[in-house]
């Protein structure tokens, strides 16, 4: 690569510096908005290519692009990659000495860098902000923007300083990016940043090549058995654990099996972590075992599996971590090994992260009492402070100290020659009443953390399409079942269709019964009171003592579907769940209720569209009562489940040709290969070998849109292969 020069033409810059002939769908919209000078909030799934959205505009214009990132490891990786491409880039964070930081700031003023990665805590330092004011800043890209929101899964108070800092810098153009943001989090991000008429660009959260599975495990022995199977099948991947101790345990187990693995957690020193990460990224190691809480910032494209050894604390964290699988577009698995008892660890974390206003005040008074009278310093370890406070959770002490530091009451400092950090009282004259800490905000944050864990627990207990549940959580209410998660795999490959009048009547009766057994909360959302078993018994009009001693027999829907078998109702509920008409709530026990979509279907505001359980029957015998017979002259049209090995003879040669064609089309349309058709669809084509559109449209993964765009090329290839 020759000496760097600004290229105004983005396509020329893209090809010259990145080697790409075009941008992916979504990237093009973001780059265009940035080059037009617009502020923007971008929500793009992990692996969607967010970094290129600010790197490309940066090399097309004069000035410096600041990239705010909380992950030092990710900064280093991106800076190294940019330098290899001949693009001048650097980073400024706590890993550098003050002299190194000053040198890099001087070079920024001289215009010697195009991209500078900065840790968010730097913006809290007045000297750093004054230095930036002398730099020609063209764009500020805020990565992991969900950290701005207290509704986000990884709220970081340092990010709140960004809005104030941007005002000081004269409000440069802003680009906020995140992979996981609910509508509420998006709203919160926009409220904290001084954006002018921002463009909000949300790419779909769906990752068609990811196969989500949840395996209930009662013991670690069961977890290890399942993990061995996952690793043996996937070979390369990441195992997430909630604690350092569990990381070491899983790492040792995998090493004993002869698996080339690395361990990675915050308890390791910087050099050990960097060495471990480099081994995994460079593909010297096949499996990384890491803590959920510690972001690795890895970017390896051949990760075939991501396994969570325990349940994480939020859906956002889970989906972000799972999204590190399958970045090359090929199929990958995302497994959660679920044991309800693991929730205790997450509850411990919530308690540690939310010490409470009274605890914070008591800690401050204790620090004032025992600090040195002259220096106002206390050289106690976290363990010593926790003992003095009679606190069993050291995390609570760390969180309380952080809250006091943010309020300007104390500062923490390194103690030379010791492995502890000291605490200095900044205003000895202040009593607890002088500290500006919002007690109500502390309560609200704990409630939000607990709500996130409840949502993650609901996902673990859900019995519908895994990806559909996640997409609905992120606000994509009209999503369809993915067709290849563990739940969809049991649906025998049939597709949703609009139901006839009699089938619709049964569905509305069932939804009405579920609604009667639910209630509306203050926000107007449906909440469940009963589990699936009890509601099914209510609909059947069961007269067991278990039911008669409840309020369910007094409902107007008691016995409304008494002519259906219990098995038929279970299948019906499964289909309703997959169609998005039901949702599960409650952390302790899963309670069933209807979704907004289910309410609209119940009220007749939209036609009922779902997989009718009759279509899943293995025999001609109906699983529903005679009144449920289809009025459309037969069962729902079957669709071939691509995961089934029992149809057609697999043609490996044809499969290879189909993959080559898919790659060519993906390059032509600037897409990842799986966005054309994923592997399971190509496998079905290699078995069934359809030569007509009608025949091919029976294969899962070939909808009308993709058929119009890509299918003719595949049919022509199959016909040529078969000599037709």
Walk me through this protein's architecture.
There is one protein chain. The protein starts with 9 loop residues before the first helix and ends with a helix. The chain has five domains: 10-202, P-loop containing nucleotide triphosphate hydrolases (Rossmann fold); 210-347, P-loop containing nucleotide triphosphate hydrolases (Rossmann fold); 348-437, Winged helix-like DNA-binding domain superfamily/Winged helix DNA-binding domain (Arc Repressor Mutant, subunit A, Orthogonal Bundle); 494-628, Arc Repressor Mutant, subunit A (Orthogonal Bundle); 652-722, HRDC domain (DNA polymerase, domain 1), CATH 1.10.150. It has 27 helices and 22 strands. A hairpin with a 5-residue loop joins strand 20 and strand 21 (591-594). The strands form six sheets. The chain has a seven-stranded parallel sheet, sandwiched between helices. Strands 8-13-12-9-11-10 form a six-stranded parallel sheet, sandwiched between helices. A three-stranded antiparallel sheet has the order 14-16-15, covered by helices on one side. With 724 residues, it is an alpha/beta fold.
Secondary structure elements and pairings:
Elements: H1 10-18, H2 27-35, E1 40-43, H3 52-58, E2 64-68, H4 72-84, E3 89-92, H5 98-109, E4 115-118, H6 126-132, E5 137-142, H7 161-168, E6 173-178, H8 183-192, E7 199-202, E8 210-216, H9 220-234, E9 237-241, H10 244-256, E10 261-264, H11 270-281, E11 287-291, E12 305-308, H12 315-322, E13 332-338, H13 343-353, H14 357-370, E14 377-378, H15 382-388, H16 394-406, E15 410-414, E16 421-425, H17 439-461, H18 466-473, E17 497-498, H19 501-516, E18 518-520, E19 526-528, H20 532-540, H21 545-548, H22 566-578, E20 582-585, E21 591-594, H23 596-602, E22 609-610, H24 652-669, H25 679-688, H26 693-696, H27 704-722
Parallel strand pairs: 1-6, 1-7, 2-4, 2-5, 3-4, 5-6, 8-13, 9-11, 9-12, 10-11, 12-13
Antiparallel strand pairs: 14-16, 15-16, 17-22, 18-19, 20-21
């Amino acid at each position: 690569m020759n000496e760097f020069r600004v290229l105004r033409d983005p396509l020329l810059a893209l090809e010259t510096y990145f080697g790409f002939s075009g941008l992916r769908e979504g990237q093009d919209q973001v780059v265009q908005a940035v080059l037009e000078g617009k502020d923007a909030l971008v929500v793009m799934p992990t692996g969607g290519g967010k970094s290129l959205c600010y790197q490309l505009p940066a090399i097309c214009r004069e000035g410096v692009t600041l990239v705010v990132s909380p992950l030092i490891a990710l900064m280093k990786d991106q800076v190294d990659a940019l330098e290899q491409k001949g693009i001048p880039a650097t980073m400024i964070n706590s890993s550098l000495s003050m002299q190194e930081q000053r040198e890099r700031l001087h070079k920024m003023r001289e215009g010697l860098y195009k991209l500078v990665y900065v840790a968010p805590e730097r913006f809290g330092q007045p000297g750093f902000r004054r230095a930036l004011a002398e730099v020609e800043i063209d764009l500020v890209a805020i990565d992991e923007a969900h950290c701005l929101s207290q509704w986000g899964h990884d709220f970081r108070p340092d990010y709140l300083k960004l809005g104030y800092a941007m005002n000081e810098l004269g409000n440069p153009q802003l680009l906020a990016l995140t992979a996981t943001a609910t509508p509420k989090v998006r709203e919160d991000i926009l409220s904290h940043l001084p954006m002018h008429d921002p463009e909000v660009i949300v790419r779909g959260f769906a990752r068609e090549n990811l196969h989500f599975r949840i395996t209930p495990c009662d013991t670690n022995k069961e977890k290890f058995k399942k993990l061995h199977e996952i690793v043996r099948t996937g070979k390369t991947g990441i195992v997430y654990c909630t604690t350092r101790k569990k990381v070491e345990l899983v790492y040792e187990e995998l090493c004993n099996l002869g698996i080339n693995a690395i361990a990675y957690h915050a308890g390791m020193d910087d050099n050990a972590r960097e060495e471990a990460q480099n081994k995994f990224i460079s593909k010297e190691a096949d499996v990384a075992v890491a803590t959920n809480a510690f972001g690795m910032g890895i970017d390896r494209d051949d990760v075939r599996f991501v396994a969570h050894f325990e349940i994480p604390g939020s859906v956002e964290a889970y989906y972000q971590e799972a999204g590190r699988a399958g970045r090359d577009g090929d199929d990958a698995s995302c497994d959660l090994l679920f044991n309800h008892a693991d929730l205790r660890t997450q509850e411990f974390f919530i308690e540690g992260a939310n010490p409470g206003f009274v605890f914070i005040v008591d800690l401050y008074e204790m620090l004032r009492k025992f600090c040195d009278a002259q220096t106002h310093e206390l050289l106690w370890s976290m363990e010593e402070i926790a003992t003095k406070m009679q606190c069993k959770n050291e995390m609570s002490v760390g969180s309380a100290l952080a809250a006091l530091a943010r309020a300007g009451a104390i500062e923490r400092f390194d103690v030379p020659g010791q492995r502890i950090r000291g605490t200095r009282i900044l205003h000895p004259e202040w009593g607890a009443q002088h500290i500006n800490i919002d007690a109500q905000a502390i309560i609200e944050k704990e409630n939000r953390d607990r709500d996130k864990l409840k949502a993650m627990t609901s996902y673990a207990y859900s019995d519908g399409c895994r990806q559909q549940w996640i997409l609905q959580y992120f606000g994509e209410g009209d999503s369809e079942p993915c067709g290849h998660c563990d739940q969809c795999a049991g649906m025998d490959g049939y597709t949703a269709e609009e139901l006839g009048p009699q089938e619709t009547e049964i569905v509305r009766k069932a939804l009405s019964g579920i609604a009667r057994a639910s209630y509306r909360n203050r926000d107007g959302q449906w909440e469940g009171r009963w589990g699936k078993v009890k509601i099914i018994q209510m609909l059947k009009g069961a007269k067991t003592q278990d039911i008669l001693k409840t309020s369910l027999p007094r409902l107007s829907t008691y016995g409304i579907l008494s002519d259906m078998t219990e098995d038929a109702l279970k299948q019906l509920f499964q289909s309703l769940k997959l169609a998005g008409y039901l949702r599960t709530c409650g952390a302790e026990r899963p309670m069933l209720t209807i979704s907004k979509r289910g309410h609209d279907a119940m009220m007749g505001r939209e036609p009922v569209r779902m997989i009718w359980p009759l279509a899943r029957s293995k025999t001609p015998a109906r699983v529903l009562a005679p009144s449920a017979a289809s009025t459309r002259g037969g069962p729902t049209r079957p669709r071939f489940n691509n995961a089934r090995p029992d149809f057609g003879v697999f043609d490996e040669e044809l499969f290879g040709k189909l993959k080559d064609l898919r790659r060519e089309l993906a390059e032509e349309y600037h897409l990842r290969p799986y966005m054309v058709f994923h592997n399971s669809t190509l496998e079905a084509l290699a078995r069934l070998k359809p030569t007509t559109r009608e025949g091919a449209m029976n294969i899962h993964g070939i909808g009308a849109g993709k058929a119009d765009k890509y299918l003719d090329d595949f049919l022509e290839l199959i016909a040529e292969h078969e000599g037709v």
